[in-house]
Amino acid sequence: MIEPAELGLLDGFERALINDRLHLVYQPKISLSDGTLKRVEALVRWEDPDLGTVPPSRFVPLAERHGLIDEMTRWGMDTAFRQWKSWHDHGLECELAFNISALSLRALAFPDLVSDYCERYGMPPSCLVLELTESATQPLVTLMDTLTRFRIKGIGLAIDDFGTGYSSLMQLRQLPFSELKIDQFFVADACYNKDSRAIVESIIDLAHKLDLSATAEGVESQEQLQLMKDLGCDIAQGYRIARPLEGEKLADWNKIWSK
Ligand code: C2E
Ligand code: CA
Ligand code: CA
Ligand code: CA
């Protein structure tokens, strides 16, 4: 049984997906060693004429529940890769990070589909990082084969929201990740709370000992940015650096940022 409210949302989402009314914005990530643009993360947006702005935290789980997530993922990859090619053609070099629902990874053919996008848009696989979060219904450890295929192709895999939810040390031990993203809760708290700071410090240390790079997300202040740098974190992302931007605004942002 689908509740009426959910049905309305689902109906609207399906129409937005079919009519190409979803939209991607892109948030820059910088290298903390030299402050330069390293990568951008594609984030999906849905502004519905009737429902208004619906946050991804509402419609992504909805798409997962109702079998629409694969279609959204394909739409998003095609859109993001096309945008990346446009930046590349204009001499703006950066990597692309893309969020993938664990559910989309169940298909063993998915890594080949991703390779096809890389070929179509001329993106070296080393320029792509897939960001994964575990879900209750699809633990990442069940996806070992698919994840290994990505790594063999040279595509990066980041564990998102590390330190919260279902993410566990066992996953780090068993799965072929290349990067760890520290959840923004700890990043926000680290400047004010010595326990959070100790946790962030330990996560960065752990990442490096496992040959993973560490990204801090949700960096909102200069103080947080400096702390992440001091703690040896590799990459930072957050409002202090940039809000998620329209694709065509990235070059302008980069000009101002790199001044
Ligand atoms: P996430 O992957 O952890 O993305 C980071 C979220 O933090 C984004 O929210 C981003 O806009 C927000 N954020 C970035 N910097 C800051 C900051 O400095 N302060 C604060 N308070 N927030 C910041 P958003 O765009 O609402 O996305 C929420 C979640 O929805 C994402 O969390 C991700 O799990 C999911 N999502 C977004 N786009 C996609 C997509 O294309 N596919 C899939 N499967 N999931 C997506
Ligand atoms: Ca993410
Ligand atoms: Ca995250
Ligand atoms: Ca999140």
TrEMBL record:
Q: Give coiled-coil spans as residue ranges.
A: none
Concerning Pfam families, the annotation shows: EAL
Q: What InterPro entries does the database record attribute to this sequence?
A: Cyclic-di-GMP_PDE-like (IPR050706), EAL_dom (IPR001633)
Q: Where is the EAL domain?
A: 6-258
User: Taxonomically, which superkingdom?
Assistant: Bacteria
Q: What is this protein called?
A: EAL domain-containing protein
User: Which organism is this entry from?
Assistant: Sphingomicrobium clamense
